[in-house]
Amino acid sequence: MREEEIEKIRGVVRDCVSKHLYSSAIFFADKVAALTNDPADIYMQAQALFLGRHYRRAFHLLNASKIVLRDLRFRYLAAKCLEELKEWDQCLLMLGDAKVDEDGNVYDAKDGNLIYFDKDGEDREINISSAICFLRGKAYGALQNRSQARQWYKAAIKADPLCYEALECLIESHMLTSEEESNLLSSLQFSPEDRWLSSFYSCLIKKYDKESTVEARFKKLENEISGSVSGSSMISTLVNNTDLLACKAEYYHQCCQYQKCFELTAGLLEKDPFHLKCTLVHLAAAMELGNSNELYLMACNLVKDYPSKALSWFAVGCYYYCIKKYAEARRYFSKATNIDGSFSPAWIGFGNSFAAQEEGDQAMSAYRTAARLFPGCHLPTLYIGMEYMRTHSYKLADQFFMQAKAICPSDPLVYNELGVVAYHMKEYGKAVRWFEKTLAHIPSVLTEIWEPTVVNIAHAYRKLRKYREAISYYERALTLSTKSLSTYSGLAYTYHLQGNFSAAISHYHKALWLKPDDQFCTEMLNVALMDECQNGVDSTVELC
User: Which keywords does this chain's UniProt record carry (predicted)?
Assistant: First the structure.
C-alpha cells in the first residue's frame, strides 16, 4: 500500500477519535499498525484502545513493544492502563524507579542525582515528566501512602506549574499546612505569560489572612489578567470566572460572612448549576444559616445528578444535621466517606454528628481519622480539643489547640479556644492575651458572630478585677448584639462589684427581661437591692 493511502487511513483514525467513534478508530488504527509496524502507529493504536476502554488489550500491546521502556509516552500510557485497571503496584513498577524528597525534588534511584525537568522544550504542553509524577502520586494515594503521594504531587507541580490537577489534590485533600502551601507556590517557576496563573493559584490556597491581604491577591489577579489579555469583554469574562468567584465565596465563608457567601454562591449556581466546588461552599453557607429548605433541594438535585459522588450524600447528611436528626445525618456522612475516603467535609460532619449528641468517644474517633488523613487541615485537631474541653480535660485540650495553631496560625477560632481553656484553668491574664489575639486575627470587620469573644475578654478582665476594662468590653459587645443574657448579667455583676448599685440593678432587669427565670440574675438583683438600701442607710447616718 502506498504511503499516501496509509496517511489517509491515519487521518481517518484521528477523525474518528475527534468524533468519539472509538471502535472505528481501533479498527483502522489496527490496520495501519499492521502495515507499517511503526512505533508512532502502534502508539496511535494503543491510544485508540485506551479511549475505547480496552485497557487490558492496550496494555498488552504497549508491553509487547520493545520501545515501552525507552519511550516515556509508551510507558506513561501503559501506566494509565494499569491505573484504570486499579493495579497500582504494577502501575508504579511501569513508571520506573525514582526517589523524591519532602520538597518535591526528584532523584535518580540508581545514582542519586537530582533530575531536572525541561519545560521549555514542549511548547505549552504539560510536561510528560510532570504527568508521570502526578500518576505516581495518585498511585501512592490509592495505596494509602499519603506521605509519598504528597511528595509526588509537589514534584508534579514543580516540574510543570500548568499541572493544575496536582495542586488541586494537595489543596482539596489538605495535604499541606497554610505555610507549606505558600512556600510551594513561591517555589514555582512561571513563564512571563503565566503570571496570571501564579496570582490565580495564590487565590486557591487557604485564606485565613487579613481581609486587606486576601483582597490584594484578588486585585493582583485582576491586574495580571488585564495585562495578559486584550479586549474589555474578555477581561470581564475572566474576572467574573466561576472558579475565581467560588474562591471569593470560600473566603467569605472563612470570614464567617455566611449571608454574603450564600448570596454569591446562589448567583454562581444559577449560571453554572453543576460547579461542584461552588456547590460545596453553598452547602456550607446554607448549613451555617440554618437554611434547611435550600439544603433539601440541593441534596435532591445532587443525588439525582451525581448518585456516585460523595458530595451528593454529604448534602443529604447536611440536611438531616440542619434539622437535628443526627442519627440520619451520621448515616449519610458515613456513606459519603465510604464512597470517597479523601472527602474531608464528610469526616468532619461525621464527627460533628456524634458530638452534637455528646457521644464523645465516637466523635473523637472520627476526628482522629480526619486528622490522620488530612494533616494540613487544622479543624479535626481543633474539634478534638473542643471534645476534651467539654469533658474538662483542659490540659489535653490546650495541647490539641496548640497543635491546631501550629497547622494554621491565622485562624481566630483557634485563639478563642485557647483563651477559653486558659479561662477555665483560672489563668485569666493568659486568657485575655489569647482573646485579644483572636480579635487581632479576625480578617474582616467585627460582626455579631464574634460577640462571645468580646464577652469572654470582659469576663477575664472582671476576674482580674480590672472593672473599667471589663465594662468597656461589655459595652462593646452590646454594640454587636443586644440580645445576649451573658453580656447584660456580666455587665450588671461588674457594676455591682464596683459598688454602682443603680447601674447593676438596671442591667439585672435587662438580663431578666431576656430570661425571666435566670437564677443568678434573680438572686443577684435581690442582693443589689439590699445593698443599695443598706448603702442609703449608711449615708444617712453619716449625714446626721
Answer: Cell cycle, Cell division, Mitosis, Repeat, TPR repeat, Ubl conjugation pathway
